[in-house]
Design goal:
532 residues, mainly beta, Maltoporin, Chain A, 22-stranded antiparallel sheet, four-stranded antiparallel sheet, 29 strands
């Protein structure tokens, strides 16, 4: 980090070991009321303990020099359950269906973490022990209801309607203590102790109609939602933050031509992306005193209007597609850094004024023989951001790319092999530059006992290529000059081996997982790479 009066260089090398037992059990039964109606009840139980030991060797240069290890010892206990009730109704026409489910879920996440420094030899007089103890108590419960109905017509068109409701309650408590070197005891640390409550209720209804006229296909629909959201950070004395709102999400798509020759499709949709719990939780960790990460309990959802044009062809087992898109996002949720006067960088989230994205997507899917399948896809895009979040009025365009490659090989009727790799070339960010990033994994799956028993071996990052680096900077006083500058390189060395054993006692279909996806295609799954 470069400041007007001094330069600070921080070099860190981290190693960690984690693991612990985890139990996951799912069971249920299905009752056929008559040949057209069925009722199913299922439940899922999970229980797991996880321990994590981390040591970070830190060389802190300027002003002065400090060398020390930062140790973190954590233990967590996660358990939960859910109960599902499904009702399905079939009709004479197999395309006519009524599906519904009700689900209740409850989960706990308790844990304790201890942090302390151990000076390197010769630096005992320059490094504080900074020993702390954090206890966390988290709980979450939700109630879901969903009803879907599909009605086909004689002209092969169909009408889909549905209702859904979801109520979620989350609570997180953090009790922090610091070690008093005089009394040799832990005492309460009110600065880091906190309690956060988040409640959200979503009621929605959707309608969708689609069909075809010769080589012309069409689909139009809409989803209406009412949302009640409340967050309460108990210790800031600011009271509850409530954000009730209603939204309508229309969608329209039209396609022309035959896939075997050339099919052209155009679409419009409006989507919503709501903040995840880690984006909202304001608790910070003591693992790294120089780089802190916190959530923003006042973060609002983002809305995206998406326009797409796609050209596709499918012939002789090979599928090719090329498309262009334009997306306009308001209240874009963005992760950004700010640096305090003491030189500590804080990574958090905020809503941007406006973001426009233009891009090109491409994909190729094909098979080599009967056993090998290859999927290659990628995109090139340009992000235009307009905000005052990064200091002076910010209005810039940055280019990025993404490439994915997947291959699946059926070695024989009971053995499958899969390889996946993701690559992102260097790109510009709003507050700096991101270096190239890559990740890969491979797995082999063996089916036994008429596919009732599955054994899967997964290797994460088999070539040790995972990691990325970034440069970030900022203008604190809005004078157009950089007041701080930070360079970070992350070499994860995150090679993992995971062995999974799965046994199926019956063949009851997991309809709850299928049905809850219906009508939600107008929502947007978020998730960009993040920096600390």
């Amino acid at each position: 980090m470069n400041f007007p009066t001094f330069k600070n260089t921080l070099n860190q090398d981290s190693q960690s070991n984690s693991g612990g037992p985890n139990l996951f059990v799912k069971t249920g039964f299905e009752y056929f009321i008559d040949p057209t109606q069925s009722l199913a009840i299922s439940t899922t139980l999970s229980n797991g303990n996880r321990g994590n030991d981390n040591d970070t060797y830190t060389v802190d240069l300027g002003p002065g020099e400090k060398k020390y290890y930062r140790y973190t010892n954590s233990n967590s206990d996660r358990n939960g359950y859910d109960i599902n009730l499904n009702y399905d109704k079939k009709f004479k026409n197999p395309k006519q269906k009524l599906t519904s489910y009700v689900r209740y879920s409850d989960g706990l996440n308790d844990g304790e973490s201890e942090y302390y420094n151990e000076p390197d030899k010769g630096y005992e007089d320059y490094v504080n022990i900074n020993r702390y103890l954090n206890g966390q108590d988290g709980n979450s419960n939700s109630f879901d209801f969903k009803l879907d109905y599909i009605h086909p017509f004689d002209d092969d068109s169909k009408l889909e309607v549905g209702l859904s409701s979801k109520a979620t309650e989350r609570g997180d408590t953090q009790l922090s203590s610091l070690f008093d070197e005089t009394t040799k005891k832990f005492i309460s640390d009110r600065e880091f102790s906190n309690e956060f409550v988040y409640d959200e209720t979503i009621h929605a209804a959707y309608i969708q109609y689609g069909g075809s006229l010769g080589f012309i296909g069409y689909n139009a629909g809409g989803r209406y939602e009412t949302v009640e959201m409340m967050s309460d950070l108990k210790t800031d004395n600011l009271g509850k933050f409530e954000n009730p709102y209603s939204s309508f999400y229309p969608s329209l798509s039209i396609s022309f031509g035959a896939p075997q020759l050339l099919q052209i499709s155009a679409s419009y949709s409006k989507r919503v992306n709501r903040p995840r719990s880690r984006m909202l939780n304001p608790f910070s960790s003591r693992q790294d005193s120089k780089n802190i990460r916190v959530g923003n309990p006042f973060l609002k959802p983002e809305y995206t209007d998406s326009y797409e044009l796609n050209f596709g062809r499918y012939s002789k087992g090979i599928s090719l597609s090329l498309g262009a898109y334009y997306r306009h996002t308001t209240d874009k949720m963005e992760r950004y850094k700010k640096v305090r006067d003491d030189g500590v960088s804080v990574a958090t989230y905020a809503n941007l004024n406006d973001k426009k994205t233009k891009g090109i997507e491409y994909s190729a899917v094909g098979s080599l023989g009967q056993k090998l399948r290859i999927i290659f896809s990628g995109s090139v895009y340009w992000d235009e951001i307009n905000t005052e979040l990064f200091g002076a009025d910010y209005d810039r365009t940055a280019q990025g790319q993404r490439v994915r490659f997947t291959t699946m090989w059926n070695i024989n009727s009971s053995t499958e092999f899969m390889f996946f790799i993701f690559y992102m070339p260097p790109r510009d960010m709003a507050i700096g530059k991101m270096n190239a990033m890559s990740f890969s994994s491979m797995s082999i799956k063996k089916k036994l006992m008429d596919e009732r028993l599955n054994l899967t071996l997964n290797l994460g990052d088999p070539f040790g290529l995972s990691g990325f680096g970034f440069e970030s900077w900022g203008d604190i006083d809005d004078d157009g000059k950089r007041d701080w500058y930070q360079v970070s390189n992350r070499n994860w060395n995150s090679q993992t081996v995971r062995l999974t054993l799965e046994y199926r006692f019956g063949k009851m279909e997991d309809r709850s997982r299928f049905s809850r996806q219906r009508g939600e295609g107008m929502e947007m799954e978020g998730g960009d790479m993040e920096i600390d």
